[in-house]
Amino acid sequence: LAGCRSARDKGYRAVKCGWGPFGRGSLDADRDHLRAAREGIGADGILLIDAGQIFREDVDAAAARIKMLEEVGATWLEEPFHGGAYDAYGKLAARSGKIKLAGGEASHNVHMARQLIDYGKVAYIQIDCGRIGGIGPAKQVADYASARGVAYVNHTFTSHLALCASIQPFAGLQKDAICEYPFAPKSVAWDMCKTHLTPDANGKVNVPAAPGLGIAMSTEGISKYLVDAEISVKGKVLYRTPKL
After folding, report:
1. Which end of the chain has fewer CB atoms < 10 Å from its terminal CB, N or C?
2. What is the pLDDT of residue 222?
3. 232 falls within a domain
4. What string of H, E and C letters represents the secondary structure of the chain?
């Protein structure tokens, strides 16, 4: 409740909740969590639920949460199963009603993402640029998804450097795209960048106009996290922490 309310107060129109106890306890406990999340974000906020692969391949357990997700007006159920459970995704999609399925962050190549779209029947394909092999493969997935009416969403929870890379593949593809934004980054993730992407007054994250990824790195900011280390074999130094 407090987390969703805080995000709403800061101007975010969509909030993703999950992991933690969701799916681990009773249906009543999950229902209480969902209702608290809806109360926190407000009636008109976009509520996204991340199950964190908790159900593995148990379609019935995931399906048991669909009604309560509909009651709170959730937009999607993310990663109910592990990344390769295409059959389970497809079976749940046939039973999920108004609740759309999201997933794909575990895809480490284009083919895995396509399988999740074609056989898992996800409505939202979430790609991590750092895992799938970079902007190029991610762009292939974005185009593939767009041609099939599937929404592409970035998977980013770390730094604004990662955020800048992750929004490149689907920039301009959708009028009202959902962008996963690092709401509470670790200090090292924030300090490593001189510049940051902040949502505008309408809650939109715009692609930076500067060259390259469009963000400036900070050696000064990252230097305080540097730990001196050396790796040597039989007196020969193979690695030494570089000077910043």
Report:
1. C
2. 92
3. no
4. CHHHHHHHHCCCCEEEEECCCCCCCCHHHHHHHHHHHHHHHCCCCEEEEECCCCCCCCHHHHHCCHHHHHHCCCCEEECCCCCCCHHHHHHHHCCCCCCEEEECCCCCCHHHHHHHHHCCCCCEEEECHHHHCCHHHHHHHHHHHHHCCCEEEECCCCCHHHHHHHHCCCCCCCCCCCCCCCCCCCHHHHHCECCCCCCCCCCCCCCCCCCCCCCCECHHHHHCCCCCCEEEECCEEEEECCCC
For residue 32, being part of any structural domain is answered with: yes
User: CA 142 to CA 173: how far, in whole Å?
Assistant: 8
Residue-wise pLDDT tens digits, 57-95? 999 999 999 999 999 999 999 999 999 999 999 999 999
Residue 211 lies in a domain: yes
Q: What is the CATH number of the domain that holds 43?
A: 3.20.20.120
- On whether residue 227 sits in a domain, the answer given is no
Phi, psi for residue 176 in degrees, rounded to 5: -125, 65
Task: Please count the structural domains in the chain.
Answer: 1
